[in-house]
Amino acid sequence: MTQAENIPSAIKAWSDHANESAGIKCNHDCRITCIMLTEAMHKETEMIQFYETLMTECDYPAVNSFVRGILEEKSRIVLHINQKLNEIRACGQVSNGVISDCHPEFL
Fold first, then answer.
1. With 0-12 CB in 10 A as exposed, 13-18 as middle and 19+ as buried, what is 35?
2. Neighbouring C-beta atoms of residue 19, cutoff 10 Å
3. pLDDT in tens, 66-99
4. Which pTM value belongs to this model?
5. N or C: where does the chain have the smaller number of CB atoms within 10 Å of the terminal CB?
6. How far is CA 12 from CA 1, 9, 15, 16, 22, in A?
7. Going by C-beta distance under 8 Å and a sequence separation of 6 or more, which residues neighbour residue 38?
8. What is the domain partition of the chain in residue ranges?
9. Residues sharing a CB contact under 8 Å with residue 30, sequence separation 6 or more, in sequence order
10. Spatial separation of the C-alpha atoms in residues 34 and 74, rounded to whole Å
11. How far is CA 92 from CA 80, 83, 86, 95, in A?
12. Contact, 17 vs 10, CB < 8 A?
């Protein structure tokens, strides 16, 4: 096996290890919501709160400006995650409507 062929398995091994150590487990059932994205949104929100606290404590202009930029990025990330969760919910609701029309016994 070449080094290039080992890369996907190394990435998967790293991903599995990172998920295990973080206690994150995907349910693979994203019809109405996504546990992984919900957890990501919570973590990003915690980071926003951390950076907000840092900004109130630090009065050095260069650091304050830098942290403000990070806060803006984190806020955009939370917004994007929330938008994706809303899309997943909407698709799940449409799917449930179609399934209930055709096969109400599946719900």
1. middle
2. 13
3. 999 999 999 999 999 999 999 888 887 665 555 5
4. 0.62
5. N
6. 16, 5, 5, 6, 15
7. 85
8. 26-106
9. 88, 92
10. 19
11. 18, 14, 10, 5
12. no
